[in-house]
Records
---
Amino acid sequence: MLETSATIARQYIDAVSTFEALEEAQEEAAHVRGGMYWHAGPVAAPEAKYLVRTTPAGAETSLGARTTETEAIYERFTKRKQESTERVSGLRAALEQHQRLNRALRVGRVDPLVVALLGRLASTQLSPHFRVVGTHALYAYEATAGVRLDSDTLATRDMDLLWDTRKRILFSTQLAKVDSSMLGVLKKVDSSFRIRKMTSKSQKYTAVNKDGFEVDIIRRERAGDDPHPIKLSDEDEDFWVVQARRANVLLDSPAFSAVIVATNGTMARMNTVHPATFVAFKRWMANQADREALKRRRDLLQADTVQTLLDKYLPQY
């Protein structure tokens, strides 16, 4: 592994600062989504006005007749919404500039498709229901450590998403707001994604695009009132989430989050597992007799690499 140069490190720090400021601004903007307007009174009293709050979906709620109090509510909302809009707009412009600098300085290392997929999960508010596990988690660790890991350690053509079955009702509600299926969410990023079928393992938990990049969605082994099997939506073509051995360990791990950068300069937040959990889990996998020898060696390489990051660059974890 190599430490990043001072120039790249400085650019990454500045870009992340802007990215996180935009995250905060967008969260604040969510509180003033929709609008307010004064609704005219009935025909018998057209001079009467009523304050109405609208939602992005078109629903309306009356906040009462026009009074000093409702006028103050309207003024506060209008001012807050304008300030929020200006802040989000300004930060988006600043982030676009940082993303151009990221590309020019070659700050990023991640496949742009991965960043786009994570960005899509964030924009649809589905991120809280997933953790990135497996090889791609290494990008979050190396970004935080300020190093670049060897290509042999990072090489992969699939991304594993661990789905939290404990939040399945909330997930279904949110998914219904943004798309008809989880596959549909992926297809908004790359329309060539399809669920794998007619394979030896009948991998309907895997979506693959035209370039052979795969997205796997896994879950913990059945526990408590978990239904089984689970399909993420009622659509004919969508993920059947597969049980993964000891995935509960990854699900219960302390959270770890980092902003990652793609080779084209774009950025996204990756939510994954604590690096110490990653190390322990990879060592456990390497000791499984039924795991392929090549994968066991790679498991050990990744475990040793992340342990080195913890010892040398991430002692706070």
Note: The mean pLDDT is 93.
---
Amino acid sequence: MRAQFVLSEIGVGLRRNLTMTFAVIVSVALSLALFGGSLLMRDQVSTMKGFWYDKVNVSIFLCNKADAEQDPKCAKGAVTNEQKEQVKTDLQKMPVVDKVEYESADEAYKHYKEQFGDSPLSSSLTPDQMQESYRIKLKDPEKYQVVATAFSGRDGVQSVQDQKGILENLFGLLNGMNWAALAVMALMLVVALMLIVNTVRVSAFSRRRETGIMRLVGASSFYIQAPFIMEAAVAGLIGGAFACGMLLVGRYFIIDHGLALSEKLNLINFIGWDAVLAKLPLVLAISLLMPALAAFFALRKYLKV
């Protein structure tokens, strides 16, 4: 009976300030949805980095006759067989190297024709203009600089390129978007906290007669504050539930259906449902504790007990 009475009183308290309660629920829902989305974006970026960094190679391009005439790095002439063998031997001795593959000029020309056969430049290229290269798979993609330092400037080597660098701009953009979402989330949390404090303040003012009577009969400070704290916590929890719903719906329509990015972008390894479900308890816990704490500290100022 007591639990039913407490719940009914919480319902009455929320309805008394229905507009502000609705604003609290919406602001908490939006801010926590952004918070959960930011966490998922961070997981997505980490997943993409692990997926792509594991596939990228370091390429050592060797000098050809055309480079010897045009590129100062190849001023000593095209790469010789001895230089190629020395590069391969040194690569295989390096502990950071996992696998070494050689690509001849003919193979490079064939791959170019397969990928860019429709390009106007393809008809003017010949196999002897293509560069021989070594494609190196590293045990740790972050160790690229070790290979670059060892082979850059060596006779017969035109350049050392890290494919990971191509992805850095993409990941930089994604991280920038994530920070922007966190900034908006922080702003929404501030708005939500201000609304919670104002709601509690108005509720305490409208019930000052009741609280005065409770003080006269000897009610403790916590007993007087508890209904206001519980009202704020319930409103926040409702907002948190909506935030969880938005995360689930967003994952369903953006990745699986609707936009169906998982089908359109097959090269991206998207996060699974387990990552989304793992964030929901955290979102609900914050939605419950944040309004309760905000109400508690607000009552210390506005409710003299």
Note: The longest helix spans residues 164-206.
---
Amino acid sequence: MLYNVIEIQKILPHRYPFLLVDRITDLKQGEYIEGFKNVSISEPVFQGHFPDHPIYPGVMIIEGMAQAGGVLAFKSMDDTSQEEIENKVVYFMSIDKAKFRAPVTPGDQLVYKINVIKNKGAVWQLDAKAYVDDKIVAQAELKAMIVDK
């Protein structure tokens, strides 16, 4: 384990119920990150999606992958202090080639695997995939920018 949820909260501004990464398990600065989210029936989204047939929304999977990508971007900024990180946020620029291949349900562990396609300054282009039990459930190309709050 590289970062638990407490350490992730020092990197990302997101908080419950919208912090969608529980742990970071692998990271190589400027190249890739791997982390996961445990999907629980107690999550507020399942009150309405869907009460009799709980399915974790695809947009939440995309957001979780983006948050993992945000951790990667922040941790790839070599000379940036914690104070500087706290004054920055990651904004989505685009989501391309999004595909959802299998439903995610309570009890699943979503494993996020994010690889850098390109990084130019504050802009990051990422190849993002989400897995459950080594089976791909979602994928997308994400583009984001680190900006001042």
Note: The chain is about 20% helix and 40% strand.
